[in-house]
Request: fold
Amino acid sequence: MERKITILGIESSCDDTSAAVLQGGVVLSNVIASQKVHEAYGGVVPELASRAHQQNIIPVVSEALKRAGVEAKEVTAVAFTRGPGLLGSLLVGVSFAKGFAIANRIPLIEVNHLQAHILANFIKEPGVENRHPSFPFLTLLVSGGNSQLIVVRDYLDMEMIGQTIDDAAGEAFDKCAKVMGLPYPGGPVIDRLAKEGDANRFTFNKPQIPGLDYSFSGLKTSFLYFLRDRLKENPHFIQENLNDLCASLQKTVVDILMSKLKKAAKQTGIRQIAIGGGVSANSALQQAVHDEAARAGWEVFIPRLGFSVDNAGMVATTGYYKYLAGQFIGLDAAPFARTTLE
Reply:
């Protein structure tokens, strides 16, 4: 009897330790251990993140195998996030993947974190009706570290046509949230408070960047100076206007993201549109994409929440397609903090 392709996926690029088991193209388990330790610091502390990964990696992998009903000896390959990400965090995942591969005499598959976020749109789950985009499709990838526009021609054939020249959309949310005294991560908190606010109450800077590239540093500066000036007049300005501030900030970020996405769709003529990355869970962004889809005839694809954040299900799925293509890597593979899709 032929052995089913069974991939163990490992994700440790930032502050979530995740393991997933994929068998026959279907993700059977996807376990994520988040790290609460960073909340007290208002952002991810790399040294604390890598220590937490060391504590979490073995129990998370054990739980993923258990939930999938798969034994370690049944795994045919290990897929791991090689980068981009925090180097100390990546080292934990890469080292574990190598040790598991050596112990079980199976091949290693490196996965680009950005590529995995895009291929999250192809995750298959047991007993779930799965919608997947057809090629070519256009992806807006938005997270704490990335804001990119990518044309996807095949599972392993992608071209970046636009990217942020400074800060990412998720970073803008988190840093503006910190200025307002909101907890980390700030993006989901802003999304929740914005639902009770007036998105047209305040206006913030929208940088005019040529082509399809993004910029969010000007927005952060505009927001900071706006609050500084208003707080001089009224020390309670933030508390008294918090919902409207969140709604107006969120609208500005979404407008910036959507303007380039619409431009890219028009330039490429592509109407299959996917969004991915942690910020793709933002309700205002999702609504804006669906509104534009109704106007422009787009077909929209958004991974469910558990697969839009950092997770190993997307790593295992990417590993599956690389396994089919025979794309393996040696034990000398080292993680990298920065890289592109190419």
